[in-house]
Amino acid sequence: MDLILWRHADAQDGMPDMDRALTDRGRKQAEKVARWLNERLPADSLILVSPAVRAQQTAAALGKPYKTVKSIAPGADAAYVLTAAGWPQASGTVLVVGHQPTLGYVASMVLCGKESDFSLKKGALVWLTNRVRGEEQQPVLKAAITPELV
User: Fold this and answer.
1) What is the pLDDT of residues 77-95, one digit of tens each?
2) What is the chain's alpha carbon radius of gyration, rounded to the nearest angstrom?
3) C-alpha 62, offset from chain centre
4) Apex CA 92: angle with CA 89 and CA 98, to 5°?
5) What structural domains and CATH numbers belong to the chain?
6) Distance of CA 6 to CAs 75, 134, 137, Å?
7) Rounded distance, CA 14 to CA 17, Å?
8) How far is 10 from 22, CA to CA, in rounded Å?
9) What single string gives the DSSP state of each residue in 28-94?
């Protein structure tokens, strides 16, 4: 399976947190990364998105249908995100649009086997996959992209 963790793009400050919208800069970041993703995402990819407005707007830049998942809202537990994505047993590609620090914790759990601090910049993504070698599953980093590098 491929697991893509995409942090929402730059958002306005303020409260309530769930209603924070993307800034102009954030919309540009989301559009740039969405173009990059659309050139690479398989057509049958499952897209799971936090209910927060900034994550919804980031995902909308893809122009593809997605599913809103409460268990990946701000402050979500990394294990819940992995469960929602079906890692590592699911087949195909799952894109999760969410938040820091949760997505960093998810990436560290997949790559290092334990939750630790790992930061994704606003609008950035990490593309992970797993491969089977004999009886062992190995996580593999396929890509790490920031909006500035697209």
Assistant:
1) 999 999 999 999 898 999 9
2) 14
3) 13
4) 85
5) 2-149 (3.40.50.1240)
6) 15, 30, 23
7) 7
8) 6
9) HHHHHHHHHHHTTS-TT-EEEE-SSHHHHHHHHTT-S--EE-GGGSTT--HHHHHHHHTTTT--SEE
CA distances from 69 to 17, 48, 49, 52 (A): 17, 6, 6, 10
pTM: 0.96
Cβ atoms of 71 and 81 within 8 Å: the answer is yes
- The amino acid at 97: V
Nearest-angstrom CA–CA distance, 105 and 107:
5
pLDDT digits (tens, 9 = 90+) for 83-141: 999 999 898 999 999 999 999 999 999 999 999 999 999 999 999 999 888 888 899 99
Tokens 């402050």 belong to 75
Q: Count the neighbouring beta carbons within 10 Å of the beta carbon of residue 112.
A: 11
End-to-end CA distance of the chain: 24
